[in-house]
Write a structure and sequence with these properties.
Elements lengths: L1 E2 L2 E4 L2 E4 L11 H17 L13 E7 L5 E7 L29 H4 L2 H5 L9 H4 L1 H8 L4 H16 L3 H4 L14 H10 L4 H14 L5 E2 L1 E2 L6 H11 L8 H20 L5 E8 L6 E5 L4 E13 L2 H4 L5 E8 L3 E4 L13 E15 L1
Helix pairs in contact: 5-6, 6-11, 8-9, 9-10
Length: 357
């Protein structure tokens, strides 16, 4: 794995190959970089972007002699544990190195993608469910398309009560999780077990780590992270191919936006009401009202500013790319998120306007 002329191999830092061979960094260079890393850590200017188990590696931004921004991978193997993550409020890693869209995870979660988004499609979902999308193309409107989607999901995943019933002699009835149940649980509490499964789906498909679930998720393998993992993998809701159900829900939402609800658009202006920023990491303040935030990997927004004001005195206004919308309240006729014009939005780094009611 190589970062701007420095590669990581077998737990050691190496300069890029030149003249057919590699030369490891000298002890003096590693010591100099260690001191630099500690100094930046104490000044709070370090942003963690990569961390491996064991030695902790970090990308530090600085300027070279031509004032061009570059990144340099630094090692901190001989530092005390408290220096492993300088800013404990921020996760060590932005996300997994891979996702199911075939594009870099860092780009998916960046301001660059939000400013200039492209259409996204989960690998293999439409090709393996082409009968669904053939029905959708023949629909006469959003209501007809929603009916076709619900009929397909009932038939494929046995979501109808009659299909779930069994005779007594066949043994106990198995609970079948469904995207309906997850949406209803999210509507009650985004930090519920249903919310953990939804955040786990975003982590699995988009590669973006959640930053909050009941409490801040600062590092991998700490107690809050393990509690989140236990909830997202619990068989109570993580069964009946629930991730595949959410894959189809996302693709259906994207199809509906491009055909009926947001034809020709790339963004929707949405609102979120908050009382504090414990779930939101402020990265940079651009002016009095404009801030750059890293949002949780799945968040609720509203298309109605007044409705968003019911949830907090501070209104965050964001231009959300259509490709980052998992679900919205007019997509289906029956679901648990009716009432506030709610949208389920994939997180990452956003430029938002923060205003008071």
């Amino acid at each position: 794995r190589e970062f701007h002329g420095v590669s990581l191999w077998r737990g050691r830092l190496w300069r890029s190959a030149q003249a057919g061979h590699e030369t490891s960094l000298s002890e003096a260079e590693i010591q100099r970089q260690t001191y630099l890393c500690v100094g930046l850590s104490k000044s709070g200017r370090t942003v963690c972007s990569f961390c491996s188990f064991g030695p902790c590696f970090r990308t530090l931004e600085k300027y070279d002699t031509q004032n061009a921004r570059v990144s340099e991978l630094l090692t901190m193997t001989d530092l005390r544990p408290e220096f492993c993550c300088a800013d404990r409020r921020r996760p060590n890693r932005f996300g997994h190195s891979t996702n199911l869209f075939g594009v870099p995870t860092g780009w998916l979660g960046s301001l660059g993608f939000n400013d200039e988004p492209v259409a996204l499609h989960l690998t293999g979902v439409r090709s393996t469910s082409n009968s669904l999308f053939r029905m959708l193309e023949e629909s006469d409107g959003p209501e007809d398309a929603a009916l076709a989607f619900e009929t397909y999901m009932v038939a494929l995943y046995g979501l109808d009560p009659e299909q779930r019933s069994r005779r007594v002699e066949e043994g106990p009835r198995r609970y079948r999780s469904s995207y309906y149940r997850l949406l209803r649980g999210w509507g009650y509490d985004s930090n519920s077990p249903e919310g953990a499964v939804l955040k786990g789906w975003v982590e699995s498909r988009f590669g973006l780590f959640p930053t909050f679930h009941k409490e801040a998720l600062n590092t991998l393998l700490d107690e809050p992270w393990m509690a989140y993992v236990c909830e997202k993998m619990s068989s109570r809701f993580h069964n009946n191919a629930i991730l595949s159900q959410l894959d189809l829900l996302y693709e259906f939402a994207q199809w509906s936006l491009s055909h009926y609800f947001a034809v020709g658009q790339r963004h929707l202006t949405l609102y979120r009401g908050v009382n504090d920023f414990k779930e939101h990491q402020v990265i940079e303040r651009l002016d009095r009202r404009t801030v750059v935030m890293r949002l949780n990997n799945l968040m609720s927004f509203s298309s109605d500013r007044d409705a968003a004001g019911c949830f907090g005195d501070t209104i965050l206004t964001a231009d959300v790319p259509l490709a980052k919308i998992l679900f919205f309240n007019t997509l289906l006729p029956r679901h648990g998120l009716k009432g506030e014009g709610e949208f389920l939005v994939i997180g990452g780094t956003y430029r938002v306007q923060a205003t008071y009611l």
